[in-house]
Amino acid sequence: MTTLIREEDFIQSIADSLQFISYYHPVDYIKALGKAYELEESEAAKDAIAQILTNSRMCAEGHRPICQDTGIVVVFVKVGMNVRFETNKSIEELVNEGVRQAYTNPLNPLRASILSDPAGARKNTKDNTPAVVHINLVPGNTVSIDIAAKGGGSENKSKFVMLNPSDSIVDWVLKTVPTMGAGWCPPGMLGIGIGGSAEKAMLLAKESLMQPIDMAELKQRGPQNRAEELRIEIYDKVNALGIGAQGLGGLSTVLDVKIMDYPTHAASLPVAMIPNCAATRHTHFVLTGEGPATFIPPSLSDWPQVTWSPSANSRHVNLDEITAEEVHSWKPGDTLLLSGKLLTGRDAAHKRIQDLLNQGLPLPEGLDFKGRFIYYVGPVDPVGQEVVGPAGPTTATRMDKFTGMMLEKTGLLGMIGKAERGPTAIEEIKKHRSVYLIAVGGAAYLVAKAIRASRVVAFPELGMEAVYEFTVENMPVTVAVDSQGDSVHQSGPKQWQGKFKGISVVSA
User: Fold this and answer.
1) How far apart are CA 269 and CA 197, in angstroms?
2) Does residue 455 or residue 498 have the better pLDDT?
């Protein structure tokens, strides 16, 4: 029997699914993260997980994005060979129209992050198109779709290697995961693809991340094949690395490890690894010709009863009156609540600033970093009475190359982002007696609630990458690198290494 899929049903299903996953975590992720919260013994990691869980529930209630990075859309479409489409458009065009409608929805606009001409002008397409679409023809008379919105912070940590057939996959994973840092916003998932060819392994890794979290069930029933044995071994040993939530050190770095494999050449062992972040966003639906897909919201009872609140030991900081001496008193792991005015800026703005300074030109009128803090962020557009949409931190290591320039030539006092800083940036922070603070990646809506006012200061043509001035009230951050160059992302994991079920693992 032939099934007729109408153009408008396909497009609406894509658009509705992307809106749905922008504010609803998969229930399996919420339950696994709730369990990780219960078991976590690291105070810093537990606080980070509490922020992620609180943010998740807030987004479910408010229908606003879990993360300011609303991702690049990745779609796996399995088309039954007895399906006929009522359209003159290609499947890619149908997907892209759904993406366009989802990301420009005025009730919940999603951040447009996709740039054309990636090796040149890098111009924003304004509607987050095109998506990355994978199409398979399969037996049957339905269209099955797995769809995800993949954040850049986790996607940037993707890894691939061609191992020798006799090499250990586990050893490679344990050597590689610590090099990924915390920019992928753990705790999340690792998708691993084994076999095939180079591109097939990467595709397997990505597709594996569409599967539900079931590590607890797998451990309870026991592995039934080599892939499941590998999943358990990698899960245990990665958690024993002690990286923890946000890289602060703790017991939970991964909530699950997914593996898909494929036959490969006798001389080859291709292995790909792609992480999913704390803003895990994906769903599955099937089109049967009976209209658009429906998406059933999870019940609020699915969320654990966890509500984040600032630690009683948090220090209140007035950014409008802050002094270098106060900054020098902070130590790694200190929790702060920031109030006052700060500036924002990320990749494109830093490049503009660098170009101006290299040409001996002044910064735009009104843009003055002296004695101030910069927040690495690209916010979502506001709706209703919001002054800004979800506005969580972006990965700070991308700004490492600009750190020396900013500290030396602009008088910048401190920086706020997510994840660790590299050795060059840490050396510059130490040299200039600056400081680096982190906000929790995956808690963008929660962070945005601390922003009381927002205005564009410079480079408005950059859109979400423009320089804003935020007025914040009690914005929660943690000292990650102090003015002496000591990093919590180095000390935290060392403290917790080997404490997950007593497994002894030495990371490279």
Assistant:
1) 9
2) 455
